[in-house]
Amino acid sequence: MSNNSSVAVGSLQQQISFRVLLVQILVAIFLCINMLLIVTFFKKECFHTSTRYILFAVMLLSDSFVLILSNVLVIINFLQFAIQVWLCTVISIVTLLYVAVTPVTLTAMTLERYVAICLPLRHAELCSTRRSMHCILVIHGISSVPCMLNLSIFFATAPLGRYEQRALCSVEIFILQPWQRHFRSAISQLYFFIMCIILVFCYIQIVKVAKAASGENKQSTQKGMRTVILHAFQLLLCLIQLWSLFTEDAALKADFTLFMDIRYCNYLLFSVAPRCLSPLIYGLRDEMFCLIFCPYICEVHFFLSLGLS
């Protein structure tokens, strides 16, 4: 009996190790792509005057922060390393902020496409470099509201001794009452409901312009439509991440192993995947970005081949 249990524990540890290794590979690949795209953005001044590319760089940076910090938490939890709650609070504030920055930035990019296609004469005025800087501040301000509201409740209800305690860093340590989970979910779903309305409005308006357009304008408009659809798909994945909390709660009450399986799948599909789509949708699909980005890939491949030889 003891042999069977030890074999079961060993196979479980091996399975968990494979899962963590898979996460490391995925995160490493897309962090490298993100870093190359960010370097491409900062090296070419032609991108610095376009709101479209400025917002794209903001989204790449926020996605990279989320991938790095969430991966750090995965490793910490895998090693069963408990840290003090105050340190976990700092990490969580940055993580939750940039988790929200991605969908808010997606919405801003959709609005930029709407202005470019439906209001082309006002695009230079509404999407100037100065307004882009203001837009970045607004994005971070809007994104910080859910995080600050949820953590303010924790700060108001948690005793002072709680911050010095050690625990595995996860969102659950900030939820002291069941209603806090529902409150957090309600705020997030309100945000995403507003974003979905904006997306649907922009898509309908772009479709109207596409029907009236012809020639090159029609091709540009159709490309804008496809971009908005891809943005909607990313937002849908982020929205499902909110609902996944309820499935995890139900699984935790039923079986811990099932809970760990569902949480791992949710992390890959609804946390890592949307952030891996960003460089594919707005980087590698963009002709101008791809034209400048490809030589960097060739240089990296060349230096890697020299190092391996």
From TrEMBL:
GO terms for cellular component: membrane. This is Nociceptin receptor-like. PROSITE patterns: G_PROTEIN_RECEP_F1_2 (PS50262). GO terms for molecular function: G protein-coupled receptor activity; odorant binding; olfactory receptor activity. InterPro entries: GPCR1_Superfamily_Member, GPCR_Rhodpsn, GPCR_Rhodpsn_7TM. Its main location: membrane. The chain crosses the membrane at residues 20-42, 54-78, 84-111, 132-156, 186-207, 228-246, 258-277, 289-308. It is found in: Membrane. CDD domains: 7tm_classA_rhodopsin-like.
